[in-house]
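From the shared-data thread, chain only:
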Amino acid sequence: MAIVMFMHWKGTTQAQYDALRALVNWENEAPEGGMFHIAAITEDGLRITDLWTSAEAFHRFVETRLMPGVQQLGIPGEPQVEIYPVHRLFTPAFAYV
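Structure, as tokens:
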């Protein structure tokens, strides 16, 4: 079942996110099950919204790629993560692609 994942990582900066993105390379080597990713930098840190084919796919990515990269870069803190089943998905910008 598809899930939406919301992450809030207080204190994480744009520079840290960009370094992690480059290291983990999820844009060129898409993780299995990853469907959609959006990141926003706020006054208090990083907010992520992802769409995954399953919670298991998300957790596998976190364990095998994301957290090793976080540890390698020394990014501090723990993200707050919420996962919910997707009830409905509507993407009007992509309706005609």
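DSSP finds two helices and four strands in the chain.
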